[in-house]
Write a sequence for this structure.
């Protein structure tokens, strides 16, 4: 750092590390900043060089305070599993640029943090929760887009919280698990009062709408056939909604509990 004089005329300022409490994303975060401090009046001033470091420190402190993996956590866990940034990006169905940003200070969402933990902190995919596949947000969008093509109408609508789209997705994942041995998207589901729904769907809505569909693994012919059959079985939103409420997966699961893929073999809807 270069020298700095007190703007109030007290002479040379002293270089110190200063703790600051900064409002950030709705909470107060404490960070350590390299700054010049006047020994006479106590005035503190940062520098252009320290500004970037402070921003990164804010991001890291925020992630620690709200329970998200830090950039250092991500690098350590990824390297511990012998994965490159490209390996992790491919496994998660996101771009390498996203991994780089999260490792260097960008703050991931809570749902993406869960996905990162799933890939970096578990030894195997939770088959009963995710259907033998790691979750892929871009693939969720791809499947919903395929449904819109098959149904010839929109199902991913603004402000509807995927009330009906979530049911089509539920049947796609469960049927794929039943017939093909694994789900289409790796999504986890929960038993909610209005039917089976994506777990933590509120956190996922914006991510799904903003996902890059071209990052998703292409759908196979068998998967497209399942989507087409579901669309023909339930051409109207209310039909798929009502059917989901008759499934043992929903009827026999407690509200708020995970809807496991073990129910796939007990689907009662006739889809063929």
């Amino acid at each position: 750092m270069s020298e700095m004089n007190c703007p109030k005329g007290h002479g040379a300022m002293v270089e110190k590390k200063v703790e600051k409490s900064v409002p950030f994303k709705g909470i107060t975060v404490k960070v350590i900043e390299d700054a010049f401090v006047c020994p006479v009046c106590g005035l503190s001033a940062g520098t252009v060089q320290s500004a970037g470091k402070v921003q990164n420190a804010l991001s890291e402190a925020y992630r620690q305070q709200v329970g998200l993996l830090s950039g250092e956590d991500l690098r350590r866990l990824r390297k511990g599993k012998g994965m490159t940034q490209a390996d992790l990006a491919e496994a998660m169905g996101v771009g390498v640029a996203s991994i780089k940003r999260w490792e260097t200070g960008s703050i991931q969402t809570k749902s993406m943090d869960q996905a990162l933990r799933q890939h970096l902190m578990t030894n195997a995919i939770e088959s009963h929760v995710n259907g033998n596949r790691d979750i892929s947000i871009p693939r969720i969008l791809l499947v919903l887009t395929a449904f819109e093509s098959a149904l010839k109408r929109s199902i991913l609508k603004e402000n509807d919280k995927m009330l009906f789209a979530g049911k089509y997705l539920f049947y796609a994942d469960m049927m794929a698990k039943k017939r093909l041995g694994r789900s289409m998207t790796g999504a986890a589901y929960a038993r909610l009062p209005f039917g089976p729904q994506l777990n933590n769907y509120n956190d996922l809505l914006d991510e799904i709408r903003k996902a890059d569909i071209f990052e998703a693994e292409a759908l196979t012919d068998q998967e497209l056939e399942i989507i087409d059959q579901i669309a023909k079985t339930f051409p109207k939103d209310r039909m798929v909604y009502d059917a989901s409420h008759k499934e043992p997966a929903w009827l026999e699961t407690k509200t708020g509990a995970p809807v496991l893929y073990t129910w796939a073999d007990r689907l009662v809807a006739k889809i063929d």
Observations:
- The radius of gyration is 24 Å.
- The first helix runs from residue 48 to 66.
- The chain has twelve helices and six strands.
- The chain has a mean pLDDT of 87.
